[in-house]
Amino acid sequence: MSLSAQQVDAPQTAALICAPSLIFDHARFARDLTEAIADLRTAGDIRTAVVALLRKRQKDGRAQIAKAFAEHPFDARPMTRAYTYLTDHLVKAALHVAQNVLHPKPNPTASEHLAVIAVGGYGRGEMAPFSDVDLLFLTPYKITAWAESVIESMLYILWDLKLKVGHASRTIKECLRLGAEDFTIRTAMLEQRFLAGDAALADNLAHQLRKDLFSGSGREFIEAKLAERETRHIKHGQRYVVEPNVKEGKGGLRDLQSLFWIAKYVHSVNDAADLVGLGVFTEDEFRGFVAAEDFLWAVRGHLHLINNRASEQLTFDMQVMVAEAMGYEDTKGRRAVEVFMQEFFLHATEVGDLTRIFLTKLEADHVKAEPILERIFRRRPKMKPGYVVVRNRIGVQDDQAFLSDKLNLLRLFEEALRTGMLIHPDAMRLIKSNLHLIDDEMRTNPEARRLFYDLLLKHGNPERALRRMNELGVLSAFVPEFEPIVAMMQFNMYHSYTVDEHIIQCIKNLAQIERGELEEDLPVASSILKRGVDRKVLYTALLIHDIAKGRPEDHSILGAQMARKIAPRLGLNQADTDTVEWLVRYHLLMSDMAQKRDIADPRTVRDFAKAVQTVKRLDLLCVLTVCDIRGVGPNTWNNWKAVLIRALYRQTKRALETGLEDLNRENRGAEAKRALRDALSDWPRKELQKETARHYDPYWQALHVTAHVTFAKMLRDVKDDEILIDLHPDEDRDATRACFVMADHPGIFARLAGALALVGANVVDARSYTTKDGMVTDAYWIQDAEGNPYDAARLPRLRQMIEKTLRGEVVARDALKSRDKVKKRERAFKVPTHITFDNEGSEIYTIIEVDTRDRPGLLYDLARTLAAANVYIANAVIATYGEQVVDTFYVKDMFGLKYYAESKQRSLEKKLRQAIDEGVERAKE
Q1: pTM of the entire structure?
Q2: In what order do the strands lie in the sheet with 165-171?
Q3: For residues 740 and 725, is the Cβ–Cβ distance under 8 A?
């Protein structure tokens, strides 16, 4: 923001990041210039020589600034002043050559005067390494031929230096007229700074702007800037966007700049420090302002230098490099980039707080009053004693009386929810500066507990209270274990929010389900809540389920230990505390079972039912799981996950209610055959008997009757050596079901996986079965790159590519080399590979779970490796979490046995790791 009055008016005199002579030695340049052009006669030769001299000075100066900034990575103000100092000298040198060497005018007329003025960020004296150079060429009257020539020559020199110059040539009259019409022009001129030329002309402009343009127009300027801010936030997203824009995003530099523009316009200040004297900010708030500004400018400087161009977006790859440039280091359980981004988001939140405080001060004096009819007819809720309505927000009547009862720090939020009104920023300020009142005594106070749970359970929109309490520090004060996860970023592509915001999103989803808003999308979770659960237990578990994130230990185990302390402090009895602890400990269990295991295998359901034990726990865990997945990001929940969670819930509930013995293959097989007979009632009895007899048991338990019908028809029609393919959009699961029938031969699963990878299909589930008469019936569920079923129009090409690959016309391994690449911005993610073997999770298969970095050809590489080792793949379950994927294979050896021997397991693991490593190297090429 404003660097200080002195710095804005003359950045060359303020402290720079290195010695001024290292950036641009003016005296030496003057001597070198005189020598270089002494014998030159043509304008072209002179310009070429000048550009060569300036380019060398520019290159050396930039190198010195970058070197000093690398050594002092947080010295943002000296860095921005240094780039301004360098640019000033380049611009002045260009003007000197244009005005005194190329187009000399010893006796200019009254109209032949020119002032060069820096405007915008350059005028403010704040420049990042590749900021624009915005110049105003001011003339007293209509521009003359001489002035045109000077400006043109000057601009060519600056362009040859590869500076991005924004420029305008105007008279004072034109500046006033255009400034009145356009707020962008007005804002730029608000920060004009004289560089060179006619100083009296520049002074006259400054005087006229203040007298005839800025004076008396504060209200319209404020409203225009606030409207711009609103538009910008809509475009660039909320404060906790995972790849934030440092300049334009919410809580970014532009918010601070807008704040200062308004302050300068309304209060005529040249330095943000002046706002303390005016009573806008307290000393503490101003320190926060300076810290946020310094930090954001430092980030922006490093971002430009790393990219070697103007760049404002902190993309994933840039986050890692900026964190490294600023000296952040890995800590226990957290990467350096996560520590850096948490600090970034904390500063962004501070910017939001300061902006809110500042705008409130302005609002009382400058914002338009409400239309009188609205004031008359709007019904205002009746306020409880001690509160007042200030411009449609809740305010505190008497600060001292309010603070005399510390429970009022919670009551204010309840009053806001009860009335549906926003809290006035002055009241927020009062709370923020008195958080010390929330002590151990208050945390265990029965009335405080009641108030806290009323905020969660009573008013129907708890996320509103929680978000504001979190921003003001009340949530962390009341539940101290929450503080470390505030603004904590998880460096991956799966989570769209910081940990604290994720929890609030989860609570928001739970409240929406309770309000009946998601019945169509979430029928099971909605019906559970309608039947009734212990809401206090559920909300508590959801509030603290990720509270141990960012530690070296497993956050589920550590979180459960923390729940033992937190729940009783919040007033829960022993039984409820046990349930909350269990839910936190196993909050990922249902999601993992549904997405990483074959829920058609009776053993999966049996193991899950044994872990859950009661329908009450199952109900709570199911709702918590749904809210947890939906709270990860706006597009994380889909029909595929919904179908898996619903199926696991219904099967487990039935098993818990009727007994685990119901979970066996025979029962499922008999039901599936009966369903097929009903669906194919028009088939001759002998054909039906042949179809039901040709398959082994696993085939009947895993597929829906619609797939059984499709395979029956394909098997009836298939000819020798023929490959039949059926592609069918499975809308219920947000996927396309691809069914294949052909004669069995080794490696068929891998070849199918390769064919699907070649067309860019993401496999989310795969089933492979062999009939008793030697045919393969494979079913794959696939999605396009956006996670949707394939468009009907794209199915013919999909079929064509699959047929070519299966016939050997296209070799998947070779064709994938050019496509199996990881995008540049995604290379920063590190996902360690974990491979586990489980012989307990299935009665007849060994389960191999491969948890690693996702990429397009991964499933094909793994399947090909297993096939080469004579491993029979019965089915594969694929769960993707952003850049991380868990591929689970249900396998047997060539004799139909499990892989019990540790030596065989180690051998397979080595081969799989080798395939993954080779793929990673290929993706880098």
Answers
A1: 0.86
A2: 165-171, 133-139, 115-118, 193-197
A3: yes
